[in-house]
Amino acid sequence: SEVKKIAVLPGDGIGPEITQEAVKVLQQVEKEFGFSFSIQYGMIGGGAIDRVGIPLPPETMELCEKSDAVLLGAVGGPDWDSYPPELRPEQALLGIRKGLGLYSNLRPVTLFAGLENSSTLRPEVLAGVDLVVVRELTGGIYFGDKERTTTPEGEVATDLLIYHEFEIERIVRLAFEIARGRKKRVTSVDKANVLESSRLWREVVNRVAKDYPDVQVEHMLVDNCAMQIIRRPATFDVIVTENMFGDILSDEAAILTGSIGMLPSASLGEGTIGLYEPVHGSAPDIAGQGVANPAAAILSAALMLRHSFGYEAAAAAVEQAVRTVFEKGVRTPDLASENQLAVSTEEFGDLVVEELRRTEWPI
Ligand code: NAD
Ligand code: IPM
Ligand code: MN
């Protein structure tokens, strides 16, 4: 079969540790399924700042552009927090998202059997949790004009929250399409009681909904949604929302799965190149210790197999391997209870690889 080109950008903090495990899993998938991946590494974020002075070197962007898919670890950390805005590691991520036109960010929130006991929420609240956050990724307050001025009264700072109708329409339409393949329920989250951009958002949702009479749609204000997500999480199916609300709600929703270390994401858009990354960040507090949970990175690689390459069987195999490892009682420190022995980042990756090896997959 044809060679798939994968750009791997490990990034900062735990980025390299977790990415290594995802690459290991991809390499086992090559063997099991007879695929061929050409993996090339690029620098991004704080590491790139330290080496070449900027967070997103042109050669990294070029590497992404000539690849079929991008796997990213995480960027950022205290070393670079006081850098000027355009020189922050996070700017690299925003630059790739915008540069590749990745306007949709899919963040599936899947609860694996047994992990309901790892969450800080009660297991009975978590029964039946299976939702996906569809986050708009290239608009809103992240990308509107920013300004900083000094006035006689003191400093003034502005971030413009701006949405064009077409930006709302394409992400909302995608959410309805996704709902059709799931439980056929869409919850559109906004702040239409205060924000004009949210009122436009709601109008567009109501219009698009007419094309999907088989999908049930509801509007929910974001503050209420933040509460309902932990009160009755199993009632949600597809949550579609603007950039910053989606950022915040998905970290909250991660706790439904036991840990932020469990949540993968796929960023897709106008072109054919997809970006795959964990929802979590560079976790400077645990970096370099080999204790980070690599599941989110491994599951992001599975999303790459599914959404960029159409390798559904292989994607499902990776997800099944992760599920089986958890079913056997294996826990990384973020998921382990106090008296439970936890495995390291690398041990977890090895166990997933071993599960892939043990099973007979159809080639
Ligand atoms: P974070 O997600 O990095 O960490 C939050 C908490 O979750 C920390 O206690 C951390 O130890 C824990 N955690 C995160 N991932 C984990 C994993 N895989 N296994 C176990 N525990 C895990 O969020 P933060 O501390 O607010 O941000 C740290 C840095 O990461 C900041 O510079 C931020 O800008 C950046 N960040 C980057 C991305 C990205 O690159 N996609 C995403 C979010 C945050
Ligand atoms: C995420 C991160 C990023 C975001 C940051 C690092 C720019 O929090 O991917 O969720 O806010 O989108
Ligand atoms: Mn985030």
Molecular structure report:
It is a single chain. This protein is of the alpha/beta class. It folds into two domains: 1-106 and 263-363, Isopropylmalate Dehydrogenase; 119-257, Isopropylmalate Dehydrogenase (3-Layer(aba) Sandwich). The chain is 40% helix and 20% strand. It has helices at 15-33, 46-52, 58-65, 89-99, 123-126, 165-180, 196-209, 222-231, 243-254, 295-307, 312-327, 345-358; strands at 3-11, 36-41, 69-74, 104-110, 130-136, 146-151, 154-159, 185-190, 216-221, 238-241, 264-268, 274-278. It has a ten-stranded mixed sheet with strand order 2-1-3-12-11-4-5-10-8-9, sandwiched between helices. The protein has a two-stranded antiparallel ribbon with strand order 6-7. The relative contact order is 0.17. Residues 76, 90, 93-94, 247, 279, 281 line the site of 3-isopropylmalic acid. Nicotinamide-adenine-dinucleotide binds at residues 14, 18, 74-77, 90, 93, 260-261, 277, 280-286, 292-293, 296, 334. It catalyses: (2R,3S)-3-isopropylmalate + NAD(+) = 4-methyl-2-oxopentanoate + CO2 + NADH. Pathway: Amino-acid biosynthesis; L-leucine biosynthesis; L-leucine from 3-methyl-2-oxobutanoate: step 3/4. Substrate binds at residues 97, 107, 135, 223. One of its GO terms (cellular component) is cytosol.
